[in-house]
Write a structure and sequence with these properties.
Shape: globular
Low-confidence stretches: none
Structural class: alpha+beta
Distance between the termini: 42 Å
Oligomer: single chain
Strand order of the largest sheet: 6-5-19-10-12-14-7
Helix content: 10-25%
Strand content: 25-35%
Mean pLDDT: 94
Order of helices and strands: EHEEHHHEEHEEEEEEHEEHEEEEHEEHEE
Radius of gyration: 19 Å
Length: about 325
């Protein structure tokens, strides 16, 4: 399945995503390139506005045991009226996860970024531990939304990533239980304010000041059964239609299952929680020695998972 949450107007999207917990999006499933609105049908199965599902409905629908009957039902749908994707306004496929963990799992990116800081080696422990930082789950953007960077930022950057969405509560996972807890995958652009990030990094508290203003999450949560070979998926990024990134997910050092195992040690992960893969090699402007400017359009694509595209601007001081 390819599940999404969408709105009929940009105003409705902006108002809903400004809430602490968004509740007003419609639920859709992509069938043959068109969206079926299954909101009403879902509401006949469960209260989709209930606190349990708020902000993470697609993850519950994709994997929750109580949604099994609904999943069977919607997979049989074919003749209903469908909506062209370009006629709706997408939210992120998970509107408001409780947690957003971003990892650092591609060797080329690690080497290049460390070299830019005068560190011409990779710490050996990196090959053993899927390192991450806790990013901001309240600042996710949907496809087509404008991304506003801090007003003083001079190095507006993107990061081409894949997201993994957790589908059931899990703690102290094994590789097997971690695999069973993955609800799906999505395209992710971890927007980065490099000047702000670089200024904060010497404090050794991590990159969050240059990250937590916004990340763009693709419109579709794609369930694992839709993907034959995760490692074979190509990951691309375009700035104003010029290709800046072209790589493969298979170059990753740590699997999403390993990330879940490490991150869930003595800690709960919940349905809808997002794990970012980290930046694929060559997957950001900082690696390429160039950056975006206000008014540019950044598009990140991953085979089978879809596209997330956003215009970038500087926020008003």
């Amino acid at each position: 399945m390819k599940l999404c949450q969408f709105y009929r107007t940009p105003q409705a999207r902006a108002e809903d995503l400004a809430r602490r917990v968004p509740i007003a999006a419609s639920l859709g499933i992509l069938v043959d390139g068109k969206i079926l609105d299954v909101t009403e049908r879902a509401g006949r199965h469960h209260d989709i506005r209930a606190a349990e599902y708020a902000g993470a409905l697609t993850a519950y629908v994709a994997m929750g045991e109580e949604w099994a009957g609904f999943r069977r039902e919607i997979q049989q749908l074919s003749g209903r009226e469908r909506i062209a994707p370009e006629s709706v306004f997408f939210g992120p496929c998970v509107l408001r996860p409780s947690q957003f963990l971003d990892f650092y799992a591609f060797e080329q990116h690690v080497k290049t970024m460390r070299k830019s800081r005068g560190l011409d080696f990779v710490e050996p422990i990196w090959y053993e531990i899927p390192a991450y930082y806790n990013s901001n789950p309240t600042s996710l953007l949907g496809h087509g939304m404008t991304a506003y960077y801090p007003p003083e930022e001079q190095k507006m950057d993107y990061e081409c990533e894949m997201a993994c969405i957790v589908g059931r509560p899990i703690r102290n996972a094994t590789l097997e239980t971690a695999h069973q807890a993955i609800a799906g995958y999505a395209t992710l652009n971890d927007l980065s304010a490099r000047a702000r990030q670089s200024k904060a990094m010497p404090i050794n508290m991590g990159p969050s000041p240059g990250k937590d203003f916004g990340s763009a999450l693709g419109p579709y949560l794609v369930t694992p059964d839709e993907i034959k070979d995760l490692g074979a998926l190509s990951m691309r990024a375009f700035v104003n239609d010029e290709k800046w990134t072209d790589a493969k997910y298979g170059t990753v050092q740590h699997s999403f299952e390993a990330m879940i195992v490490y991150a869930s040690r003595s800690r709960w992960l919940y349905p809808g929680d997002i794990l970012g893969s980290g930046t694929v090699g060559g997957g950001c402007g900082a690696e390429l020695g160039k950056f975006m400017k206000p008014g540019d359009v950044i598009r990140v694509e991953i085979d089978e998972l879809g596209t997330v595209e956003n215009r970038v601007e500087l926020d008003k001081a």
